[in-house]
């Protein structure tokens, strides 16, 4: 402001000096242009020049003012449209949340060009179209979302893949996620969605290759991803187990990340696959090593079902576990019952079956004990066990099992032979 005043004062002083000089030295000025010539007083010429400058300045100022009005009007209009777009975005999101899909889509798309966040408008509108099952319109809105912000490829692609997956468009979702993985190979949500799509497509080979990266990204923690891992391992294990390829099964197990090989559920799946493949020796070794480190009821159940190379050694191992677990674990008691049953020590097997079932009812154990009692010629106890097992299957409620002691028949004394004297002939 001070500089402006100084310039203005200098300009006024210059004009005053010029006026005084012209008035002090009057004269005639001639202006020649070709054949034309114009004569006027010097004072008049100076006055005209000054007037022209003033008019020019005023014209420029007026022009700037007019242009400024237009610019201000344009800004006002843009601000008004932006405010309206902001309100429309808010209302559209409310309608979307309340489930008014058609209203939401209309509000969000009409004002998207004037919105400060057109990406949000188009994404929300695409979701509204998706909920109306208007998939072509949804994809067009997603395309407009990318055009509104070229840096949002991942965000838009993830939304598209998620909607494609929920609508059952698995092939399209697979293609979208494959493209996104090329753009961002380690994006965690892209990997998670891709794993879910592969799971639903049952592409176990591809999903198995993805497991190490899922483990590295720590994406297998929640229940949904745990199911993905379990289903993948079960499918791949059973593929080799049914073909009786125990060597391929073991090679596959060694390739898995250590985090998976230490997972109890994965160990149980692998042990069952070894049993199905006919490699009970490796299965028994695997179960024994893991139960020595950490008890697992599922592994204990399987240990009692497999064929042992040395049944006596297996019983000794189970008895050691019993000594280290004085809590009478029902799975351990059932394990001992099955091993004694295989050894044909039926009295011991019967006792352990009864103890296990009185702690935790088990449909398979009821059947095994009933068949054992039939073998031991105890029909009343066998029938009681069959009845309890049937009621447990139907009602899901266990009942106390009390077997009737059996009386061994007393040996009847043999009649002594009667000796008759020999009289000869």
Write structural notes for this entry:
Helix content is 73%, strand content 3%. By secondary structure, the protein is mainly α. It has a domain at 14-115. Strands 1-2 form a two-stranded antiparallel sheet. A hairpin with a 2-residue loop joins strand 1 and strand 2 (36-41). The longest helix is centred in the first third of the chain and has 57 residues, at 42-98. The protein is rod-shaped, with a radius of gyration of 47 Å. The termini are far apart.
Which helices and strands, and how do they pair?
Elements: H1 2-24, E1 28-33, E2 36-41, H2 42-98, H3 101-110, H4 118-131, H5 135-148, H6 153-166, H7 170-183, H8 188-201, H9 204-216, H10 223-242, H11 246-255, H12 258-261, H13 264-276, H14 280-293, H15 297-303, H16 311-324, H17 330-342, H18 346-359, H19 363-375, H20 379-395
Antiparallel strand pairs: 1-2
Helix pairs in contact: 2-3, 2-4, 3-4, 4-5, 5-6, 6-7, 6-8, 7-8, 8-9, 8-10, 9-10, 10-13, 13-14, 14-15, 15-17, 16-17, 17-18, 18-19, 19-20
